[in-house]
Structures are given as C-alpha cells and as structure tokens.
C-alpha cells in the first residue's frame, strides 16, 4: 500500500515538473523532442512603383551675335615733366684765415729810495746801586751808594725802497690775415617743364548679342516598374515541441566531400543537401547547425578559415532554396576534430584524408 502511494506521488511530481517546464504532455517512449519557436512567415506582393518622376527638359537656343565697330581709348592722356638742371659759375670768396688780435707789452714797476729814523730803545731813568770800592766795612751793604741815572733814547736810521709807478701794460694791435677760395654758385636754377601727352585711340570690331539665348521645353513622362517585395504575413513566436529522430540531435555526417583547398559545392553535393536537409527543414520548424571540417594537411589557421567557408557554402545554398537564414548556423572546426589518426606529420592515404574533409549537421533546440 505504501509503495503504491509513493509511486502515485512520484507520478504527480513528474507531471507537475513537466507542466512547469513546458515539456510535451504526452511523450512517446524512445522519442526525442525539440523545442521550436515558430518564425515569422512572409509573403510576396507585387506593386507598381513610380521609379522615375515625370520631368521637363530644356533645350537651349543659343544667342546670335552681330559685329559692330567701336572707337576705344587705348592710352589715356597724361603729362610728363622735363627736368632742366641748374647752371653754375665760379667766384672767389674772401675769408679771414687768421683773425686780428691785440698783443700786450708789460711795463715793469719803478721804485725810489728813502729812509726813516726809528727809536730802537726809549729814554729811561732810575736808581742804580753801586758798591764802593775800598769799603772798609765787612758788611758790603754798608758800602752801597744809590744814584739816580737817566739814559737817553736810542734811534736808528732805516733806509727803504718806495714804489714810484706800478707795473702796467701797453697794447700792440696785430692786423688780421685774409685769403680766398673758389666757390661754384647757381647761375640759373633748375626747373621742371610740364609737357602734355595726348590720349591714343583705336577702332575695334566686336560681337554683341543680337538675339538673346532662349529655351525650348520638352516634357518627359514618368517611368514605372513592377516590384515584388516580401511582407510579414504571420507573426511567429509560438512555442511548439517537434518530434525528431534522436540521432539527429547529435552531429550527423552529410555525404558531402570537397576537393583539396576548395569550398565549392558540386552538383552531387547539392543533390545530397536536397535529399537530406531540405526535407527536415521543410517538414518541421527546427533549426540546424552546419559543421564543416578539413583534413590536417596545410596551415592550421588556413584550414580553420577554409572550414568556415565550407559551412557558409551549405548555409547559402539552403537560403537559396527558401530556408530562412535565421534557422541556420555555420561553424568551421578546421582540423580540430579529425576522425582518424591523420594529424599533422602523419603519413596517410588520400582516402583517409578525404574522410576528414566532411560536413555534419545537427538539430538545435531553440
């Protein structure tokens, strides 16, 4: 009883998980399903479009000319000035080569002789004491006599020189010296004489417009073209689950083989694509990935680029058959996924290398 209850609860949990994930509700055992989101569908409509508007062309009628004569000024009247230089004559010009001056003669001073009496010592008087000779007293002071004596003044005659006349000068005039030099002076001054130069004229012929240019109009009709364009027919975005063979979810080899260093699809390769890929893409709204591979011969980077070109060739061919490019993806793997031992430097047969030059596809869950 408990085991049946456990199985019932597991079944309910499984149903709830499926509904939460949006998976198919009634899957068949052993079947595989891919989630597909329906794409936008388009249709072609035909419209007539005006590709070039009606317009008017203009044809120019050129102008016509006539010839006329005309007198034109070729050189304007002007004036010119004629210069007459000055004339000169030579004259003698006197000048003072040495100016007059006055010399001075010195008259020395004159002197006379004279004398004058000077009192060299004045008259004096006074008492004079004398010790008498033969004084009998031992005390000399007893033998002193006082006499009042007068002395006359002493005079002296002193001769001296007197100035009779002081020194002076007398003037002696010295006359100036003169000389002459030659000088060229203007006899007749320079002058400018104005001369009138008349204008010059010439008769020319020229063409003038007789009838101005004009235009003639011409109406060109509009051009139309019938254009076929693709418009959105039905918006996609609806999620569906499509049953597919399980092996198609893994890389599946398409029997498409390439010549060495080539990405060109042969007619046989195109028939293989028509028979294998187109039915799947037309029958179910699934997406597929195209995977291209090369052999190991050649440069690794070159092989990677070549494999991408090969994958692109298959995608471009499917697009030309009406498959939307949004449903297709192309991936080149170069020599990174060899199917045998024929890697760089390994001696292999052409058949072994050919197996590595393959194209695979797989269905994607989108």
From TrEMBL:
Superkingdom classification of source: Bacteria
Signal peptide: 1-20
SUPFAM superfamilies xrefs: OmpA-like
All copies of domain OmpA-like, residue ranges: 245-366
Places the protein is found: Cell outer membrane
UniProt keywords, alphabetically: Cell outer membrane, Membrane, Signal
Primary location recorded for the protein, binned into one broad class: membrane
Classification via InterPro entries: Bact_OuterMem_StrucFunc, OMP_bac, OmpA-like, OmpA-like_sf
PANTHER family found in the cross-reference section: LIPOPROTEIN YIAD-RELATED (PTHR30329:SF21), STATOR ELEMENT OF FLAGELLAR MOTOR COMPLEX (PTHR30329)
Record-given protein name: OmpA family protein
Native source species: Psychroserpens algicola
């Amino acid at each position: 009883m408990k085991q049946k209850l456990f199985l019932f609860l597991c079944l309910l949990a499984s149903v709830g998980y499926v509904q939460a994930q949006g998976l198919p509700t009634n899957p068949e055992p052993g079947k595989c399903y891919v989630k597909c989101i329906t794409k936008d569908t388009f249709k072609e409509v035909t419209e007539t479009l005006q590709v070039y508007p009606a317009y008017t062309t203009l044809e120019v009628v050129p102008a016509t000319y006539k010839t006329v004569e005309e007198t034109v000024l070729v050189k304007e009247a002007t004036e010119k000035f004629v210069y007459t230089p000055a004339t000169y004559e030579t004259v003698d010009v006197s000048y003072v080569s040495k100016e007059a001056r006055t010399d001075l003669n010195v008259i020395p001073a004159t002197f006379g002789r004279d004398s004058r009496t000077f009192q060299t010592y004045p008259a004096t008087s006074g008492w004079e004491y004398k010790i008498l000779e033969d004084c009998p007293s031992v005390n000399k002071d007893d033998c002193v006599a006082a006499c009042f004596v007068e002395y006359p003044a002493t005079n002296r005659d002193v001769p001296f020189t007197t100035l009779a006349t002081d020194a002076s000068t007398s003037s002696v005039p010295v006359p100036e010296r003169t000389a002459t030099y030659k000088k060229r002076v203007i006899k007749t001054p320079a002058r400018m004489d104005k001369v009138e130069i008349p204008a010059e004229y010439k008769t020319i012929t020229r063409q003038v417009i007789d009838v101005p240019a004009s235009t003639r109009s011409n109406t060109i009709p509009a051009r139309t073209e019938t254009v076929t364009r693709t418009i959105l027919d039905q918006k996609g975005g609806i999620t569906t689950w499509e049953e597919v063979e399980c092996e198609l979810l893994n890389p599946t080899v398409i029997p498409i083989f390439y010549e060495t260093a080539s990405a060109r699809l042969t007619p046989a390769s195109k028939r293989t694509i028509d028979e294998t890929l187109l039915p799947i893409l037309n029958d179910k709204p699934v997406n597929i990935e195209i995977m291209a591979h090369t052999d190991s011969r050649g440069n690794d980077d070159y092989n990677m680029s070549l494999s991408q070109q090969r994958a692109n060739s298959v995608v471009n061919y499917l697009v030309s058959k009406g498959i939307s490019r949004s449903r297709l993806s192309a991936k080149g793997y170069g020599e990174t996924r060899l199917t045998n031992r024929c890697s760089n430097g390994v001696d292999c047969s052409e058949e072994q290398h050919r197996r590595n030059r393959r194209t695979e596809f797989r269905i994607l869950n989108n």
